[in-house]
Amino acid sequence: MSGNVKAASVVTDVDRRFMAAAIRLSLWHEGLTGENPSVGALVVRPPAEGFVIVGRGVTALGGRPHAELQALHEAGEAARGATVYATLEPCSHIGKAPPCADALVAAGVARVVIATLDPDRRVAGRGVSILERAGIEVATGCLEDEARRAMAGFLSLKGRGRPFLTLKLAVSADGMIGRKGVGQVSITGAIARRAVQMMRVEHEAIMVGAGTVAEDDPLLTVRLEGLEKRSPTRVIVDPFARTPTGAKLFRQARDYPVLVLASGKAQRSKVEALRESGAVVQTVASDYRGRFDPREILRVLGVVGVKSVLLEGGAETASRFLDSGLVDRIALFVGASTVGDDGIPSPLTEATVPPGFSVAATGRYGEDRLIEYERTD
Ligand code: AOF
Ligand code: ZN
Q: Which CATH number do you get for residue 36?
């Protein structure tokens, strides 16, 4: 290291405000940047000039150009002497473009505030070193938890080789998720159902068990006006490829992919029929009875680059993932009405949330409540 390295810069309240804005900006392209994280970057003039934002950038659709390059481009000469807020450590590797850290040095910025370091082995601290060696003041860890939450999918895929898994459950006041023998029953009201659609927007894949498709015949798409195109890939866990080829979700298979995860025990003719209906069928290793290890399912999804999965049921699939300890976040909607004795008990209620989870947020959607739990271990 050269002699002009500066002491670590202290994070201030003003820094946290700008970083919060950068995180919000990063969410614009969450789920739309491929294997890249959606990063937010702001270029801000120094205090003496009134903290004016002169450049903004969010990782472009598909993953490139990176956020910092766009923010610097917008700022132009005004980047000289400015502070840059980046939700992820600026990269140091030569990809399709030169490294963001080098671009920040070349632009003559005075200070860079970073929320979290990049776990990508090509970067991992090298971005910070490049900046510091050039005499730029660097502060890290600004709103780190918030930023890590915003790019949980990327961090999970890079760090653990598997997507971040959120389990969504809607439970009636008496702890049921449905009624036996009846297809879909409304546990929550329209407002909560719209909130679920928004959760779909924020994930790259929705996953359900084959039983849920056979019984409920759901579409699993986003029907919020203007956001239809944000429907994630629909993943069906179906060891024996028994999903009915007439299921509604195949109607839009060309626009919104359907990925069926089948085992080697599935009949070839069934697999072919699903392919003809528009599904992509991927074989996943199973035991001799055709049962999957949930870990293997997530590994396979990770291999195809899926960063985040919303698990929407049913009870059996949810239980298996819960029992395997792979659920990272639980979104539990609690409805106001009861189902009664012919209900299907939920694998989880407020009273039976497994140890290791704590409440991260709560909300109200009309009559219904949402409790979100995060892993603390
Ligand atoms: C940044 N700013 O906006 C993003 C970064 O394939 P490449 O060259 O685009 O590099 C992908 C890696 O770059 C990705 O794994 C992550 O480490 C970083 N993403 N870095 O400086 C950005 N999206
Ligand atoms: Zn970069």
A: 3.40.140.10
Say yes or no: 36 and 104 in one domain: yes
Pocket test for ligand 1, best of 56, 61, 66, 68 (most atoms within 8 A of CB): 66
Atom of ligand 1 nearest to the CA of 90: 21
Please give the distance, rounded to the nearest whole angstrom, from the Cα atom of residue 65 to the centre of ligand 2.
8
Give the residue from 134, 140, 143, 165 showing the smallest Cα distance to 152: 165
Pocket-forming residues, ligand 1, beta carbon under 6 Å: 36-37, 39, 59, 63-64, 66-68, 88, 90-91, 95-96, 100, 118, 120, 123
Instruction: State residue 117 phi and psi, 5-degree precision.
Output: -75, 155
Write out the residue range of the structural domain in which residue 242 sits: 161-375
Mean pLDDT across 327-354: 92
pTM of the model: 0.89
For residue 2, being part of any structural domain is answered with: no
Q: Identify the nearest ligand to the CA of 95 by its number.
A: 1
Would you please indicate which residues are annotated as catalytic (active-site) residues? 68
Does residue 305 share a domain with residue 197?
yes
1 inside domain: no
pLDDT digits (tens, 9 = 90+) for 189-235: 999 999 999 999 889 999 999 999 998 899 999 999 998 888 999 99
